[in-house]
Hints:
Layout: H1 6-11, H2 23-32, E1 41-48, E2 60-64, E3 75-78, H3 81-90, E4 94-96, H4 98-105, E5 113-116, H5 121-124, H6 128-131, H7 149-158, E6 160-164, E7 170-177, H8 182-198, E8 209-216, E9 222-224
Parallel strand pairs: 3-4, 3-5
Antiparallel strand pairs: 1-7, 1-8, 2-6, 8-9
Helix pairs in contact: 2-8, 3-7
Amino acid sequence: MSKLTKNQKAVAGLVETGKAYTLAEASELVKKITTTKFEASVDIDVRLGVDPRKANQMVRGVVTLPNGTGKTVRVLCLCTPDQEAAAKEAGADYVGLDEYVDKIKGGWTDIDVIITMPSCMGKIGPLGRVLGPRGLMPNPKSGTVTMDVAKAVKEVKAGKIDFKVDKTGIVHASIGKVTFSPEQIYGNAKEFIQTIIKLKPAAAKGTYIKSIFISSTMSKGVKVDPKSVE
């Protein structure tokens, strides 16, 4: 077991083991227990009472975090020539089609999100082997395949993220940075959790939100009382 650093020892007693804090309290605590010298991310893990192996219990969606993610998101917009100007004006970092399809075929994936149009999917489909494993494949369900590419670019730049429950029943996402104020962390976390609650599958039985933990990069998790969010 690794030894605690001096800073980690100093904050070790701030979080009581087993105690469930309100979301507001957790949003303050996660800042206090972060000891990294770099700008750490704030992460949230929500364990759901669903069976992801069953299609009718899959939880997947998108949410626009009111205070953004704190990250610089590199957006590639693969679109027809008539939409290029609007995509650039909306803030896309890279705009085009054939030249970027060729670059991706050559192994280029120096981007975070790809937004495209339905009419362009024929050219993008064959890139699935490259884009799929990296989570970059555009998908209508996440809003990255759309006729209004400019709107999609603006939303992603403003803090829109997509999420999906994993095979263990947990939804994980990064919802900001520790440099955010407690109020900003709280606002993003609340929006994220409430979006998950709205997506509760009809087939899900019993307790839906089993547990919520908020942590920062390399910090311990702070348990959140689900009732403080509903």
